[in-house]
Write a structure and sequence with these properties.
The protein is an all-alpha fold and 130 residues long. It has 4 helices and no strands.
Length: 130
């Protein structure tokens, strides 16, 4: 007889629990964003600066998505964070940090390919011995 009332209460409880999870997720993303922006700004190693900024950008996008999907949660300083990210991107581009990071990544891939070729040679030698 009161199934509709019970269902309504269950739905309200489920929504409340979902909002709590989202609030925790948003809080964690905010902390990670702030920490990563600080590290991107203060780190001395170019690769660290770039990776921390990229991580901060992903956390910022996560917060924007949460805020878009759940209007009850809003970003209070979205323009300031966006401006800080753009400023760091410009600074890193001018300093050549992106180029350095890309060069290191290519060296890493090249070393992997060379190791793979060496491994193939060793396997071939091993096969010949059998």
């Amino acid at each position: 007889m009161f199934d509709w009332l019970r269902q309504l209460l269950l739905n309200a409880k489920a929504r409340r629990e979902l909002l709590e999870v989202l609030e925790h997720q948003a809080q964690a993303a905010k902390e990670q964003l702030n920490e990563s922006l600080l590290l991107a700004h203060t780190a001395t190693h170019p690769e660290t600066k770039v990776t921390r900024l990229e991580f901060a950008k992903s956390k910022f996008a996560e917060l924007q998505t949460i805020a878009t999907e759940h209007p009850r949660m809003r970003l209070t300083n979205e323009q300031e964070v966006d401006a800080a990210i753009k400023l760091l991107e410009e600074e890193f581009a001018q300093a050549g940090y992106y180029a350095m990071t890309e060069a290191r990544r290519r060296q890493s891939v090249s070393a992997h390919v060379n190791l793979s070729q060496e491994a193939e040679k060793l396997l071939a030698i091993n096969r010949e011995r059998r």
